Amino acid sequence: MGHKIGGRGVTWDRVNGTSLEVACDESGSDGENLTGGNTDVFAHASVLLPMECAAAQVQEIRGRIRSPAEEYKANHLLREKHRAVLEWLLSESGPLYGHAHVHLVEKAFFVVDRTAGLLLDDPEAAGELFREGRRTFTEEEWRDFLGAANRLLRVRPGAGPEDPVDGFFRTVGTLRRTYPGTRAADLLARLAAERCRAVAYRDGIGAGPAPLIPLLNPLLPSVLRTAAHWSRGGRPVRLVHDRQNMLTPERIAWIEDAAGREGIGLTGLRLVVARDDARVQLADFLAGIARKVASDELNGHGDPALAALLRPYTGGSAVWGDARSWALLGPAPEESGGPATDVNTLV
């Protein structure tokens, strides 16, 4: 395998088993607060470029933007006055095309997916619950359901007058009584029958210590999906990631072990300071851009040109429930090997 940019190649030596080194960063991290945080989309971006090539591209971006800021972020590129630079960065003639990937997570769907997985042992039910819930309930009722599910699953649910188990099943009961005979009510009835699982989950958290891998934090599974993307075809890959409090040595060890169990060719993960690694800076740009473009599309005021430019970078492993927006953001059928809306959820 070989990629060339500016006359320099990025290769993987199958004979000697040399690993690809891929740089990563994220945007939209609110921890486990997925329904009440600042963002509704989480993006994990990765870039495969030689260090010297990435440094030259960062300098090219600085030269085109000409901002006095010491550290550039995605918001510099997202300003309307720098639209031409943004379009160049994502375009086929830009430095990232064919050398970068974004794993997207729609946070509301992630909450539903995790709830269905915990209570029903049936992540496939998540898609139907997500569709039927949004179709049947009012916006306020849907927000209430998502918030109750988030508090149920969150390690630290936050202060409140109601136990998270009681609060979730009270919300489920209210919605069932309000919409009897609907498919949404049928799905909620399945959840209501599994209160014992919810109690066991909360009791396990209360007994301590806090779980090493929080059920609701999208970063750790996103790192795995990123490694899986780059290691397709049996390629060994190392990840270089911007420092993140969630990525403790114990969790990095868990990621590496989980990758081995899944047959993902991850040979290691190390943390760096973003300002010292131009490849991570490019991943930071892409993550922030992707999060904003995807969020705008999700909320019905997307930019068609930017969505089309982002599309070659997204992958079919995205955790995304909204079919309308994914039809515009997800890989085209010829790129993904299936319908653009055929989105897999994490297990």
Number of strands: 7
Tell me roughly what share of residues is in helical segments.
40-55%
Structural class: alpha/beta
Strand content: 5-15%
N-to-C CA distance: 30 Å
The outline comes out as globular
Strand arrangement across the biggest beta sheet: 5-4-3-6-7
Name the poorly predicted regions.
Answer: 1-16, 336-347
Q: Which assembly state applies to the chains in this document?
A: single chain
Radius of gyration, taken over Cα atoms and rounded to an integer in Å: 21 Å
**Tally of contiguous helical segments:** 15
Q: Element order, helices and strands?
A: EEEEHHHEHHHHHHHEHEHHHH
Largest sheet: 5 strands, mixed
Average pLDDT score: 89
Task: Considering the chains and any ligands shown, give keywords for the structure.
347 residues, alpha/beta, five-stranded mixed sheet, two-stranded antiparallel ribbon, 15 helices, 50% helix, disordered N terminus, disordered C terminus
